[in-house]
Design a protein that fits this description.
alpha/beta; Rossmann fold; 2 domains; eight-stranded mixed β-sheet; 13 helices; globular
Length: 393
Amino acid sequence: MLKGKCILVGITGGIAAYKICELIRMYKKNGADVKVICTPNAMNFVTKLTLQNLSQNEVYVQEFDVKEWKPEHISLADEADIMVIAPATANTISKIAQGIADNLLTSVACAFSKKIIIAPAMNCNMWNNETVQENIKKLQSKGVEILEPESGFLACGYLGKGRLCSLEKIFNETVEALSYSQKLAGKKVVITSGGTIEDIDPVRYISNYSSGKMGFALANVAKEMGAEVVLITTKPFEAPYKIVKVKSALDMQKAVEDEFETSDIVIMAAAVADYRVKNQAEQKMKKVAGVNETLTLELVQNPDILKCLCEKKIHQLVVGFCAESENLLENAKEKIAKKGCDYLIANDISRSDIGFSSDDNEVTILEKSGKIEKLEKASKKVIARKILEYIYE
Ligand SMILES: Cc1cc2nc3c(=O)[nH]c(=O)nc-3n(C[C@H](O)[C@H](O)[C@H](O)COP(=O)(O)O)c2cc1C
């Protein structure tokens, strides 16, 4: 699976460092060339001898132990296809986020221009520390993939979030990251995500349960596939591509229309409200006993953004999403015919294990031609990749 790939494993001074010996074996068993860099503090937790034997390579720790004309922080960064830092301490995460390069590992990370995966592990209070969280967000916004720690019993005796995620997860994400081809290079992909917010007055609104995660996953995968990505969303995501933050259906329509002409693929994964309040109150509405015991809101239809795009599309490929709580396929077939989009991704929102807010999804792809393809339950990232590859093919 990993033949011909060079993986740079960075180990920092956390108690979970011992687990990475097994991860190195997994990479090696699958044919990868593994090079290990440890922070000096990591050497308190694992030995150079063990890592050297498992990786069958020299283990790098000291930055100034330079043997060749090209310093190791440059040559190691140049040679590797991916860098995986696990476990990543709060200290190293924060240094990398701030561009601090004060040891070999942080210097290599600073000089590394390809994909970096970071698997943090630490005490739950360290993980929840505001500065650490800001640094995590900063790294995500630069395209670093963070494999969130898990909750459970921690080595420090606390119960909470901070345990290194499973080695299988780190391994699978590495394989996945290395397998992306640049199929969408030169293409502009516009994606919408999240539920729109329709104001009633300055403090109240009508919305829906959409978390925006499916659209975010599609945007991330499209970026990995080399596309120029624009994510138009109602949610506060951080990512290394253009994000246009919107609120209402009307805002979303304007933002999509601004990007439409120059786009190649438009994926409408957002849950756009069908209706908005006709007369939004400028001031907070008050209840007065005996005067307004009941309240009636008059709603007006929002524009059908998907249908409007399909009517004006020239070269663009337009993909819609439909969330149904019953008769999924029947409703989806009716919708693709009515809207005129090239593909429709049908989502069953009646199940709690997939769809809204869940990290997993199970969808059916409908084509304009009538072809139907069901994608079995998987993480939204895997589903996103399958959708984009299906469309590409
Ligand atoms: C026994 C022990 C266990 C530690 N475990 C962790 C840990 O799991 N995560 C973490 O962020 N820091 C942990 N620390 C603190 C780090 O070792 C410390 O912040 C150090 O400066 C990290 O250096 P490095 O990031 O250069 O490796 C631990 C410290 C000790 C003494």
